[in-house]
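User: I've been trying to design a sequence by hand for this structure and keep getting stuck. Would you show me what you'd pick, starting by listing the structure so we're on the same page?

Assistant: Good idea, let's start from the same input. This is the structure you sent:
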């Protein structure tokens, strides 16, 4: 993993200031002589800069985005926990991590940070900008800020406007984190149990009633076959081969998935607020700018 250090004050959209930045990033392939083969991938809320790990079907040798053909860049967003400046970073004014004192950031702040990295890498043109989910918000914002820089835009699983349903889900997740008795403590583990609940809520949004019914309905309608796994084993490894009742397996699997995210609750809470701030409070201003940029 590479690290870019920006040692000047970084002014945030909300008025706060970070005394310098650290951005973790990965590059794959080689920048050609004309600097015309750049593919920049903006990652989603809980991902990192190692795009070949979480998107191996798309990025890699012989794949659609092939490092033998393209110069691929993926940078970790600020506010995250995978190497870039975030709540767990040291506050130079106090000498201890920011934690709850980390200033609010916006999608535009993320893009501005990555623009600094682009300049550092000597990139003058982006042939393809890719973004999924919250990465799509970054890609859209970047196109608004520098429309002449980006040739093509590939968006997936994203939107230009958050729905009331999406806002409600994000708010519910933040409330789950805030309900944890350890929330607000100056510790990387603060809000950990609340984060598990928040991620379980998120998992529900990745499915719907019909898919749950199709894949998780108990085939034994008469309930004549008792589960082989008692309550004591319910929360063990969800990938266990020990047979169990389908409903118990579903609950166990959801518990397992909620533990897989390496993202301290504070980072997750901040990024959820960021999505709400960007897509709800500034959407009208953004839409006006987007229409003007697309008309150029």
């Amino acid at each position: 993993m590479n690290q870019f250090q920006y040692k000047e004050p970084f002014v945030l959209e909300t008025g706060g200031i970070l005394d310098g930045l650290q951005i973790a990033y990965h590059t794959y392939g080689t920048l050609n002589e004309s600097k015309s083969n750049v593919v920049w991938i903006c990652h989603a809320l809980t991902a990192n800069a190692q795009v070949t790990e979480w998107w191996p079907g798309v990025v890699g040798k012989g794949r659609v985005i092939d490092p033998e053909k393209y110069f691929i860049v993926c940078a970790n967003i600020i506010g995250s926990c995978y190497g870039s400046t975030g709540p767990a970073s040291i506050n130079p004014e106090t000498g201890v991590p920011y934690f709850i004192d980390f200033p609010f950031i916006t999608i535009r702040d993320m893009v501005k940070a990555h623009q600094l990295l682009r300049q550092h890498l000597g990139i003058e043109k982006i042939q393809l900008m890719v973004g999924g989910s919250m990465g799509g918000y970054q890609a859209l914002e970047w196109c608004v800020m520098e429309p002449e820089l980006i040739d093509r835009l590939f968006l997936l699983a994203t939107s230009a406007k958050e729905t009331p349903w999406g806002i409600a889900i994000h708010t519910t997740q933040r409330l789950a984190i805030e309900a944890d008795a350890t929330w607000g403590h100056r510790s990387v583990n603060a809000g950990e149990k609340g984060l598990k609940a928040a991620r379980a809520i998120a998992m529900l949004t990745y499915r719907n009633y019909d898919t749950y019914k199709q894949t998780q309905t108990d085939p034994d309608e008469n309930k004549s076959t008792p589960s082989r796994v008692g309550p004591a084993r319910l929360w063990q490894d969800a990938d266990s081969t020990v047979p169990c009742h389908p409903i118990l397996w579903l609950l166990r699997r959801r518990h397992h998935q909620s533990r897989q995210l390496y993202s301290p609750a504070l980072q997750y809470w901040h990024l959820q607020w960021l999505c709400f701030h960007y897509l709800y409070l500034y959407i009208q201003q953004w839409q006006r700018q987007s229409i003007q940029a697309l008309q150029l």
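That's my pick for every position. To get oriented when you compare it with your attempt: The domain at 2-161+282-294 is CATH 3.40.50.1820 (Rossmann fold). Confidence is low (pLDDT under 50) at residues 228-249, 255-262, 280-284.
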